[in-house]
Amino acid sequence: MARWVIILALGACRTPPLPAIHATTHPVIPDPLDHLIDDLTSDDIEIRDRAEARLRDVRASEAPRLEDGARSSDLETAGRCARILRGNLDELKAEQASEHYRLAERYYQSGDFERAELECAKALRLQPGLAAAEALGSEIEFVLAVHRPRWAVRAAPARKPVFFH
To answer: What's the CA gap between 140 and 128, in Å, rounded?
Structure first.
């Protein structure tokens, strides 16, 4: 009987359970990118234009979310997100072309004309019409033509005469 009294006394002295601590005790901060993409569906054109301008500054790591926006059922949102993605791609290509041109300049200055020629070609493939790369490429072709032995210089293919009827 004494055993039951001790057990009952221990049961009566129990403290209430502590509240469970959840892993997410901090408030969830809304992502501004989601807000900007939602602003593209606004009825106010000024809000849409402002959102598009701010989305143009988005890093390349956020491109998947813009791609989701480009697949949106709302035509305005899809069009603006696609336009932003194309613009970001053009900027990325321009940066890469500029880097290849700078590398071509370094190779040219060090006397490694073959590598300089390859880097110029890469720059022009990424951004056709890049004037600096075209000028350096012409200069490299001239230097290589002068320094290559005559047997290594490729002759232009002979053109067949064209007869008009």
So the answer is: 17
Tens of pLDDT, residues 111-133 = 999 999 999 999 999 888 889 99
Give the N- to C-terminal CA distance of the chain in Å, as an integer: 126
Using an 8 Å Cβ cutoff, are 58 and 84 in contact? yes
Beta-carbon contacts of 150 under 8 Å, excluding residues fewer than 6 positions away, are none
Torsion of CA 106, 112, 117, 119, to 10 degrees: -40
Domains, the chain, in order of start with CATH, read: 31-150 (1.25.40)
- Residue ranges in the chain assigned as alpha helix (H): 2-12, 32-39, 45-55, 63-70, 75-110, 113-126, 131-147
Biggest CA–CA distance in the chain, Å, is 126
Structure confidence by residue, pLDDT tens digits, 55-75 = 777 765 667 777 888 888 888
Compute the distance between CA of residue 146 and CA of residue 117 in angstroms, rounded to an integer: 14
